[in-house]
Amino acid sequence: MEVEFVVVVLMGNASFCLLFVLFADAFIIEAQFGYLGKQTLIKNDKEESHHILHRKGGSGSSNFSVTAPLGSNDRLSMTVKNENSSLGSIHGSMTSDIDNTLSANEINGSGYCDLYHGKWFFDPSGPLYTNNTCPIITQMQNCQGNGRPDQEYENWRWRPNECDLPRFDGKRFLELMSGKTLAFVGDSVETPKNRGNRKMHRWFFESYSVMIVRIWSSWLVHQMPEAFDFAPAGVDKLHLDKPDQTFMELLPSIDVLVLSSGHWFAKQSVYILNNEIVGGQLWWPDLNRTKKINNIEAFGISVETSLAAIVTHPGYKGLTILRSYSPDHYEGGAWNTGGSCTGKVKPLTEGELVENGFTQRMHEQQVMGFQRAQKKATNKSKLRLMDITEVFSYRADGHPGPYRSLDPNKVTKRGPDGRPPPQDCLHWCMPGPVDTWNEIVLEIIRREFHPAQELSERR
């Protein structure tokens, strides 16, 4: 069966319809066109699917068809028109001086304006897309569609202290990436499970020869369910010293690689180093055995392992962007013990900010792993840290909270005993704060591919 989409979008004077929402818990490419209409479901038993986008349009508008070959001669076509679609924006922020000696720019080896120190400001113009113009937003991200009554969280954007950070420009992105391949690799905060639980999706923008790849990799290292030593079958075993070959085998064909991970280290798993079980999370059957590492340390090792494999790969010359740990905002408990972010409707102030010790330690381990991998580099690739953790710690308002599902009977307020309803204070609403991530990724790419075109500095 082969599925074909024909998407019509408007290329206006002010902005180009956002072609894809980078990160933002990752969307299928059709969503980034922001078309209106019925979503066609794709079924595929294979591990990956390929989407080819052709631009057919004239001067006033652009027609795009998305072809997803799925293994047989059957085809299903759909034409959608959206004459006012305009998507875009993503916001990111954070500082970076983990070893107390390196600034964000020093870690990234640049003398550019620091993107990770600044302020959130209210933008009355709002986001460049809505949940109505982007129907492929996943259910857990569609906070407005799930009944969230407030919308102000959609209007806050990130402004660095030293320069202006433009909204995402899809056409500009495709021009910068012309002839190149961009891959997103990570867990559900970065890339929700691909349709049909496939490990990989690919999209090709034929007009610009741009390939977009999305790869699911929960831990970025090799994972196996089989029994190992005294760990039984069924529990995930992580070989912390072996990178995940799902993305490593594609590395020579990738020009820009965006990585993220971390939150799966709170899940049940077994840690293996040098073919020896050295620790586990939510699993440790023999209390007489001593754990050599905990889940936070395991995370740091996994970051170093994956990045070191990338920067020493003889066939890789691309740009790798590591997005730092995305903070959660559970108050009064964890995700499974009554933690809540109910009632957060705008960014936290300095006085409201509560230090999250776990997030801080995860971030520290991640950056240390990044720094250790930097020192091992032997190839001509570039490694950059997209350090968004600190500033996103202010955005407790950007999570779905109780508005993760469409259930009309869901509880959205605390009960008589004060207990909060079930919450999602980890993932992010769309539109919402994560739209900044697009803008930062685009700026990092611009700096690497067209360094002479600097952002305008604020005077």
Explain this structure.
The protein is an alpha/beta fold. Helix content is about 15%, strand content about 20%. It is built from eight helices and 16 strands. It has helices at about 30, 105, 170-175, 245-250, 295-310, 355-375, 390, 435-450; strands spanning about 1-10, 50-55, 60-70, 75-80, 120, 155-160, 180-185, 200-205, 210-215, 220-225, 235-245, 255-260, 270-275, 275-280, 320-325, 380-385. Strands 4-1-3-2-8-9-7-12-15-16 form a ten-stranded mixed β-sheet, with helices on both faces. A hairpin with a 2-residue loop joins strand 13 and strand 14 (about 275-280). Helix 5 (about 295-310) packs parallel to helix 6 (about 355-375). About 50% of the residues are buried. The model is unreliable at about 1-15 and about 20-105 (pLDDT under 50).
Features:
16 strands, four-stranded mixed sheet, 16% helix, ten-stranded mixed sheet, single chain, 459 residues, globular, alpha/beta
| Largest beta-sheet characterization | 10 strands, mixed
Strand order of the largest sheet: 4-1-3-2-8-9-7-12-15-16
Please provide the count of β strands.
Answer: 16
Mean pLDDT: 77
Report the radius of gyration as a whole number of Å: 22 Å
- Give the overall form: globular
Secondary structural class: alpha/beta
- Low-confidence parts, pLDDT < 50 over ≥5 residues? 1-17, 19-103
What's the tally of helices? 8
Query: Helix-strand pattern, N to C?
Result: EHEEEHEEHEEEEEHEEEHEHEHH
Helix content: 10-25%
Roughly what fraction of the amino acids lie in strands?
A: 15-25%
